[in-house]
Amino acid sequence: MRYVGKLYRPPSEADALILQATIGCSWNHCTYCDMYRDKPDFRVRPLAESLEDLAHAGRELGPAVEKVFVADGDALVMDLAHWEPILDACRRLFPNLRRISCYATAVNVLAKSDADLRRLRELGLSLLYMGPESGDDATLRRIAKGSTAADHVEAARRARAAGLELSAIFLLGAGGVERSAEHARGSAALATAMDPHYLAALTLTVVPATPLATLAERGKFALPSVADLLGELRTFVDEARPTDALFRTNHASNYLPLGGRLPRDRARIVDVIDGALAGAVPLRPEHRRGL
Ligand code: SF4
Questions:
Q1: C-alpha 85 to ligand 1 mean position (Å)
Q2: How far is CA 290 from CA 200, 203, 207, 225, in A?
Q3: What residues have CB less than 8 Å from 194, skipping those under 6 apart?
Q4: Is the minimum distance from the CB of 237 to ligand 1 under 6 angstroms?
Q5: Is 33 in the pocket of ligand 1 (CB under 6 A)?
Q6: 3-class DSSP state of 262
Q7: 202 lines ligand 1 (CB under 6 A)
Q8: 104 lines ligand 1 (CB under 6 A)
Q9: For the segment 90-118, what is each residue's pLDDT rounded down to a tens digit?
C-alpha cells in the first residue's frame, strides 16, 4: 500500500487494511483539527492507484483481511464512480471481508441521494464514522464544523435508512469553559437523535498552530479543567438515550477509559465517573494521553 503523510483511523479499525483513496479532508476547517493540515490540497487519488493498492493487498493478504477502512478524513465525499470499483474490488479480493468503513461528514451524507447511499450499502460499505463533536449549535459554529446539529440528525436518519451503521463521535471540551454545560447537554441530545450503533467520546487537546490554539493564546478559548471534562462525560452518559449503542471512551485522548452499552449500562458507567470525580478511580496520566 502507498500512503501520503500521516494516517488516521478510529481505534476500532486498528486491525483494518487502510486504503487511502482520498488525500486529506475536503473540509479541513475545524478549528481544533490538525490531522490533515500537512495535506492542504484535498484530492481524490486516481482510481487506478487505489485499485493497484487493493490488488497488491489482495495478493499479499487476501483471506487475512476482514476489515477495510477507506481513508482519509471524509472519504465518503468520493462520488459513486470511485466508490463502486473500490467496493467491487474489496469484495472480490478479500473473501473474509466483514466490513468496509470510512469517516464521513454530515455534508458528505447529505450530498448523496438516498439511492446512492443504498447502492454504497449494497456494494459493501457498511459503517460510517461521523464526528459531530457537539450537539450545541453555538459550539459547532465556533469550532467551524460546517454543519448544525439538525444537519447531523438528518444525515444520520438518511444513512440509517440506507442500512448503514453509524458511529458518532463527540469531543469533550469542545465548548470550552464558556459553553461546557450546553455542549454536554446538547451532545447527549444529539446522540439520542442520531441514534447510532456506536458512540464514542474523545477529549479535546489544543494542538499548537491550529486556529483553536490561536484563540486560546488570545484568551478567547479555555479548555475546561479535568474535573469539568469528567463532568461533561457524566452528563453525556446520564442523558444520552440511543436505542442501544456500544459506548467507548477508549481513545488515547481520554482520561477515563470506559465501555458498555447505552442506555443499558448507564448507571454503572455513571458510578465509575463519580468514582473518578471522587479520586477513587485512577485517571490516565497526562503523559500517556495522545491525540
Ligand atoms: S471534518 Fe474531520 S478531518 Fe476534516 S477538518 Fe474537521 S475534524 Fe478534521
A1: 26
A2: 16, 10, 11, 17
A3: 130, 132, 152, 153, 156, 166, 168, 242
A4: no
A5: yes
A6: strand
A7: no
A8: no
A9: 999 999 999 999 999 999 999 999 999 99
State pLDDT tens for residues 29-41: 999 999 998 898 9
- Separation of 25 CA from ligand 1 center, angstroms? 6
Ligand 1 touching residue 102 (CB < 6 A):
no
Distance 14 CA to ligand 1 centre (A): 20
Domains of the chain: 11-279 (3.20.20.70)
The distance between the two most distant Cα atoms of the chain, rounded to a whole number of Å, is 56
Section 266-284 average pLDDT: 95
- 3-class DSSP state of 229: helix
Cβ atoms of residues 47 and 14 within 8 Å: no
Question: pTM of this prediction?
Answer: 0.96
